[in-house]
Design brief:
Blueprint: H1 2-35, H2 45-49, E1 61-68, E2 74-77, E3 79-80, E4 86-98, E5 101-110, E6 121-125, E7 139-143, E8 148-149, E9 152-156, E10 173-174
Antiparallel strand pairs: 1-4, 1-9, 2-4, 3-10, 4-5, 5-6, 6-7, 8-9
């Protein structure tokens, strides 16, 4: 009996952490969906019902080494579907290992985030799941200042999401730059909308 209690004692923190993580992720998704109900990009109830996600996987939540950009150059990210190009500034790079693979992602700061913007720092990225399990145009990650701690930044792929162009024809989307194309599959976060990986 004492051995059983000892095992439960050591496992309890991990069980609670897992539950708390999933609950926090669900809350974040609800908050993110609510943020899409403002401005020009309103999601219809039918669109919300068709949102699909990979199962939460904490292995896709990584702590990366952050290196700020020495020169915050202004860049213009191309747009799909003929929309307005997105002007950004280089903010820095995040280096980490995922599935035993070294990864580097570039973080950008929006030059004109607009009123009521949910974020200012973001990571547009693409990976081999695009066009099959996920939207063909790539996916996005928001980065908040609270995600930084010293020279480290937390990147949670379980929170990556689609452009509005994944839900409705006619909308444009930011095309992830080549420097943020990952060679490994990111089986986390938002999946393709409904059963369609893209228009």
């Amino acid at each position: 009996m004492n051995k059983l209690l000892l095992i439960v004692f050591f496992l309890a923190p991990f069980i609670v952490t897992g539950q708390t993580y999933n609950e926090n992720l669900l809350q974040w998704r609800k908050s993110h969906i609510a943020s899409q109900q403002r401005g020009n990009y309103l999601m219809k109830p039918s669109e919300i019902e068709n949102l699909r996600y990979f199962e939460p996987d904490e292995d896709y939540c990584v702590h990366a080494k952050f290196t700020p950009a020495k020169v915050k150059k202004q860049l213009v990210l191309q747009s799909g579907n003929g929309g307005k190009k997105q002007v950004v500034k280089e903010y820095g790079c995040a280096d980490f290992e995922l599935m035993s693979t070294p990864v580097r992602l570039h973080i950008y700061k929006l030059v004109n985030p607009g009123s009521g913007a949910e974020y200012e720092l973001f990571i547009p990225f693409s990976d081999p799941t695009n066009g099959t399990a996920t939207f063909r145009g790539g996916r996005y990650l928001n980065i908040d200042l609270k995600d930084f701690s010293g020279n480290m930044v937390t990147i949670d792929f379980n929170k990556c999401y689609n452009s509005h162009a994944a839900y409705e024809r006619g909308y444009s989307y930011v095309i992830p730059p080549g420097e943020n194309h990952l060679k490994l599959e990111i089986n986390a976060g938002e999946k393709a909308y409904g059963e369609d990986p893209g228009f």
